[in-house]
Specification:
Organism: Aromatoleum anaerobium
CATH superfamily: endopeptidase domain like (from Nostoc punctiforme)
CATH architecture: Alpha-Beta Complex
Family: Belongs to the peptidase C40 family.
Protein name: NlpC/P60 domain-containing protein
Radius of gyration: 17 Å
Structural class: alpha+beta
Low-confidence stretches: 1-38
Order of helices and strands: HHEEHHEEEEEHE
InterPro entries: NLP_P60_dom, Papain-like_cys_pep_sf, Peptidase_C40
Keywords: Hydrolase, Protease, Signal, Thiol protease
Strand order of the largest sheet: 3-8-4-5-6-7
Shape: globular
């Protein structure tokens, strides 16, 4: 006969699971209270080859319809938003980014949102927390991301009312000229 959890324990487990599934990436080690303006030493993570931005877009499009998985780091098991970005960067450059949207934002060069180019990163406040979700900008107002809702990597418009009201930054993986 199967073992049943007491009702309060079962409800608590369901609530915890739902909270985890609603998240996109691991929690940051420290929650920034103000917008992140860059690293103190002025250095940022950057890709070695400017063509890597184009490769990121192509690679991201190849992951469309891949399943979502909280904490996911590879397409076979599923990806979350920061897992998708760090996986793509590692496949293209051989270099690793953290598996955390807020930490990726801290390591990468801020750019104005109107300056977005294909291959740049877009960040959103989806959990009342800066940089709690992210995606890769494709151009023409579109980005690809791994959302927990409907569970598949897909393309969205930045003008989508949900994302338009939550965008909280853009970053480039290219070195400043």
């Amino acid at each position: 006969m199967p073992t049943r959890l007491p009702a309060p324990v079962g409800l608590a487990a369901i609530a915890i699971a739902a909270a985890l599934l609603a998240a996109c990436s691991g929690l940051p080690t420290a929650t920034p209270s103000a917008p992140v303006s860059g690293r103190e030493d002025g250095s940022y993570f950057s890709l070695d080859d400017p063509l890597h931005s184009q490769e990121m877009v192509i690679f991201a499009l190849g992951l469309l319809d891949t399943g979502y998985r909280f904490g996911g780091r590879n397409p076979e098991a599923g990806l979350d938003c920061s897992g998708m970005v760090s996986y793509i960067v590692e496949q293209i450059s051989g270099r690793r980014l953290p598996h955390n949207a807020a930490q990726i934002a801290q390591l990468t060069r801020p750019i104005p949102i109107p300056s977005l180019q294909a291959g740049d990163l877009v960040f959103f406040n989806t959990r009342n927390q800066r940089h709690s979700h992210m995606g890769i900008y494709l151009g023409d107002g579109r980005f690809v991301h791994a959302p927990s809702s409907r569970g598949r990597i897909r393309i969205e418009l930045l003008e989508n009312p949900y994302f338009k009201s939550r965008i909280d930054g853009a970053r480039s993986l290219l070195a400043a000229n």
